[in-house]
User: Which sequence fits this backbone?
């Protein structure tokens, strides 16, 4: 296999304003994006 030649993981940042002004849609998107990115083996 080419595991020895795999590039290092790429950091991905999700940036948003914290606080009570975050809408439910934004919170749902962030939760979904974090779960999907953490599950992707190629990114970890």
Assistant:
């Amino acid at each position: 296999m080419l595991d020895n030649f795999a590039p290092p993981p790429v950091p991905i940042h999700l940036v948003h304003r914290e606080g009570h002004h975050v809408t439910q849609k934004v919170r749902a998107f962030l939760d979904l994006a974090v779960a999907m990115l953490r599950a992707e083996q190629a990114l970890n």
In short: The mean pLDDT is 80. Residues 2 and 20 are 46 Å apart (CA to CA). The chain is about 35% helix and 0% strand.
